Amino acid sequence: MKNRYLALAAAFVANLIYGINYVIAKGIMPEYLQPRSIILVRVTIAALLFWLLKPFTIAEHIQKIHLLRIAVAAFFGVAANQILFFEGLNLTTPINASIIMVGVPIAVLIFSQILVKEIITKRKLFRIILGSIGAIYLILNSGTISLEPGNFLGNLLVLANASSYALYLVLIKPVMRHYQAFTVMRWVFLFGAVYVIPITLPPALSEDWRIIPLNIWMSISYVVFFTTFLAYLFNNFSLRHINPTTNSVLIYLQPVFASLVAINFQKDQLTYQEVLAAMVIFAGVYFVISKPGKAVESLKIKHNQ
After folding, report:
1. What is the number of domains present in the chain?
2. Structural domain of residue 57, as residue ranges?
3. Local structure of residue 61 (DSSP, 8 states)
4. Global pTM?
5. Could you report the per-residue pLDDT of 211-220, keeping only the tens digit for each?
């Protein structure tokens, strides 16, 4: 039980970091850096950090079969995930992208059913949809959906990104049962760097890095250390003790955190619509992460006997 609470706390902090990132990272792209350039910085520096910290972590030998699974998961969770999202965001609106990303828990549920035979119950689906409704309502409260034809490709890329990240969560979960989060993340980002460097290095070399002001460098540092290094680490640690569906449903908290940060920086004002949406989101998240009552648990034990 203690490990479950720690896992939920880690996933909570990871999504808090992502929520703050919407405000902190605003303005980096494309004014100062192109999407692929910031992806190169994120992935390569995160990979270096994980490997530099290797002497201070538990030494573990990864089996070849698990290494292969990590290599596949890294493609979907690092390379495809980041490239599809940033390229898609460049071709669509933040509102469209945010709403599409709400579909991650549903995609996780589908992939879990296909790959690990997790049962999709009506109750579980209802709870996820409840959280989705709250998140979508909160997002729409800050803007409107754009149905311009020019956004279609961007929407498609963000949708592919959401599916890619959902698949990553399902693929990496079995590996996390065997190794520490640091061990797995070292290899995830090493493979991720191998995948992204050929695609992201050419545009990065053409950037004028000298014009980037100090405040933007601070935002880049946050994106690299918090949004990439720590958030991935916390998310993958949580997968040791909770299933991918429970982990992914906490994504609904991101627009709540983003709104709170915007209000704190006086970039937004608290409205009753935001309070209502937050209540619906927290209700949906609570129902998904809460464990069955003791009566239900005892019935399961008797049935198993």
Report:
1. 1
2. 2-304
3. P
4. 0.78
5. 999 999 999 9
